TrEMBL record:
Its main location: membrane. Keywords: Cell membrane, Membrane, Signal, Transmembrane, Transmembrane helix, Transport. It comes from Vogesella fluminis. This is Probable membrane transporter protein. The lineage of its organism: Bacteria, Pseudomonadati, Pseudomonadota, Betaproteobacteria, Neisseriales. Residues 1-23 form the signal peptide. It holds the Pfam family TauE. It is found in: Cell membrane.
Length: 252
């Protein structure tokens, strides 16, 4: 690996770590960077997951104040673990091309949900039968997002923020903290699976590890200082960019 390539991968990973801390979507930076560096797509996907996981951990540690007292913490963690395991397993049995076709539609749906979260929350408040059903719906939604996250992960953070906004879970900053922790759980399961399968390019992964850790810490500090309205705009803008990029990749 040349110095120029190493610096390029570090820069992409730093930006991805910061994005993951603010709203998610870092895979859109790390995966293409690794493919451009010459890695096969499957190896690039696995290496991207490994490189981003410490960034999630670093961001989650920076958010530990916001994680305190969250009532859904345990249940959401269990759902994330189960879903992440299922998604990682699917990598070994389902054609990646099939899921590639679904990715832009899933991100488009998640972005629209987040942008319209206030209206959706009011609607749910009028039509939800009881809090118990709402809690089960939240856990089911988290399970589905976790399956997706274990399989690929691009846009996973946006999907989680959209889900939490739909259920009016907490303030945006605290929802972002929960999203970051659950990303640790989901990606951790996938990382173990990919390492065991032997499909990780370790030289590239180690360079990007350093970048995502540094970017994750910087991004967590930025997310805490941003006004809620600006953080929401960042999420919607990033979701729109992800949607266009994936549609172009699949159908362009």
């Amino acid at each position: 690996m040349t110095l120029t390539l190493a610096l390029a991968l570090f820069a992409a990973a730093f930006a991805a770590g910061a994005l993951n801390a603010v709203a998610g979507g870092g895979t859109l930076l790390t995966f293409p960077a690794l493919v451009a560096a010459g890695l096969p797509p499957i190896v690039a996907n696995a290496t991207s997951s490994v490189s981003q996981w410490p960034g999630y951990v670093a961001s989650s540690l920076a958010f530990r104040r916001e994680l305190r007292g969250q009532r859904q913490f345990a249940g959401m963690s269990v759902a994330s673990l189960a879903g992440g395991l299922a998604g990682a397993w699917l990598v070994t049995v389902v054609s990646p091309r099939l899921f590639d076709v679904l990715i832009p539609w899933l991100i488009l749906l998640a972005t629209a949900m987040f942008a319209c979260s206030a209206t959706l929350t009011r609607w749910m408040g009028r039509h939800a039968a009881n809090a118990h059903r709402s809690r089960n719906g939240l856990l089911a939604g988290q399970l589905l997002v976790s399956v997706y996250g274990g399989f690929f992960g691009g846009g996973m953070g946006i999907m989680m923020l959209a889900l939490y906004s739909l259920f009016a879970l907490d303030t945006l900053t605290r929802m972002n903290a929960l999203k970051t922790w659950l990303s640790v759980v989901i990606s951790g399961v996938a990382v173990v699976t990919f390492i065991v399968a032997g499909i990780v390019d370790w030289p590239a992964a180690l360079v990007m590890l350093a970048g995502t850790i540094a970017g994750g810490v910087a991004g967590a500090r930025l997310a805490r200082r941003l006004p809620a309205i600006w953080l929401k705009r960042v999420v919607v803008a990033l979701g729109s960019a992800l949607t266009l990029a994936f549609f172009w990749k699949v159908y362009g």
